[in-house]
Amino acid sequence: MLMNKIKTRFSIRTMLLGLLACSMMSCSDDLDIQIVKVKGEPHDPSQPIEVTDFSPKTGAAGQQMVIYGKNFGIDPSIIKVTVGGAEAVVVSACGDAIYCLTPSKSETDAEPEFNPSDDDEPIPGAQDGGDEGGASSANSRSVYVAVGPQGAMQSAMAGEAFAYEPTWHVRTVVGEVNDKKEAEIKDGPFGDCGNIMNAATFAADPFNPLHVYVSSDLYTGGTTNGTTNRSEVRLIDFEKKEVHSIFNAAYFGKSRIRDVKFTRDEGKHMLVAFDEGDMSVILVQRKEPGMTGKDAFANQPYDILTYTSQCNGVDVHPKTGSMFFNTYGDGAFYKFPDYELNPEMTSIYDCIGYDATHNYHKSKRMFAHGERGQEMRVEIHPDGNYMLILQINGGTYIAKSMYNAMTDTFGMMSAYIGMHSTAGGGSGYVDDVGTKAKTNSPRQIAWVKNPEYAGNTDEYDAYFTDRSNHCIRKITPSGVVSTFAGRGSGTGNPWGYADGLARGEALFDCPCALMYNEERNVFWVGDTWNLRIREIYYE
Questions:
Q1: How far apart are CA 314 and CA 261, in angstroms?
Q2: Is residue 462 exposed (0-12), middle (13-18) or buried (19+ Cβ within 10 Å)?
Q3: Is the peptide bond before 337 cis (omega within 30 degrees of 0)?
Q4: E strand or H helix at 361, and its extent?
Q5: pTM for this one?
Q6: What is the mean pLDDT of the chain?
Q7: Within 10 Å of residue 537's Cβ, how many Cβ atoms?
Q8: Domain locations in the chain?
Q9: What is the CATH number of domain 11-166?
């Protein structure tokens, strides 16, 4: 029998389990669930069981379902429900109704074996119903109920099949946390690699998108639950399912790594941004051309590219290869290198080896946003047409800056999503359009090409982690903001830890890092204070 374990949290489930041993759920025309009173008779093994209906008829894994019939009894421990052969989570029963949670969709519509035997006999007491031999649709699965002691269960099949509707779900893929939520940093395979402390940003290796580097934005001097905080870069190898520490900030004589990106040259080296008072962006050499994995960047030489006042974000233009970054100290945005002042240069590598003074002047100051001491990240569109600027700490908005191909620079930023508090805006949680929407500390953007926009000027949706709203949200090219995963701070108890349906069930706690993997059609989320990496997948 195919077994599926579903970890999820439900307010209705909690209420039913905590307050009622079972409840009568009446069946109206639309099969709404209504709790009336405690009711139900124990299962009578001398009488057959019967399935008369179930609701809803369509849904996703983790869907709340009520099955109606006769002689189910009131003991969930002797009841099994399968959908397509996969076992559902039975929550409660009250004689003529069962409340359960649908399992993940099985690969095929398998017939369950409630009483397995060597000669593969038919299921005792099984009812005929629906399409002969099971459900006919690729997304439809037969619903069975079995009641009784192990080896002598009576079973019945519903007359209709349950149709799975594809939807987004959340599951945990990396990070183990004990009951005390103690921090633990160690290398190893998934399931024995400790946890992921303060995952701030993701960057996929251009030579292997399943090799994802995560930067941990933590000071080295402090501790979390007795574990020394290390601002570092680790490799999450989704191919081999391993985690490896690559280097920490102390390797460069610094204490705070803020961002990681890759260059667009043939070597595709790593760029690391520091929130430091002098050197702000460095280039780490790849050990060998095209080499990937845990040894590609570990203990490798590096070159200082810029000396500016504290950098929070860096990115590279997809066509020109120019590097763009912010500075915390003067609230400005720079391009590196400045080809106008330095016509002899053809790429950022022409600057390697200069001293601090020369490097500083190799950068071109494009614009400032009016305030110093604002932590901002830059995220350039895959086509290079514009960049989004995220106010990441105490953040209230996302700004847009358009690209000028003639000068290879970005223009003054303008309000896009939400507004700065000085302009009448402020942090909050509102799904709306443009400046009417509200965010609370947006952190990282994942660009996803949407086939529905084919032929348009902009074919990408921008998904972003909304850290202090504990959710992941989406921006369409027209600026419409909606919540994609998590509950958002507009609902009760918006943070925590729970897998399940992306909307309404899954919970995050200050998510920061975000990446989309096109090959697997999944999002990876750095769930900061849950010390884990979560995966949003489509089923």
A1: 7
A2: buried
A3: yes
A4: helix 356-361
A5: 0.77
A6: 83
A7: 15
A8: 11-166, 169-538
A9: 2.60.40.10
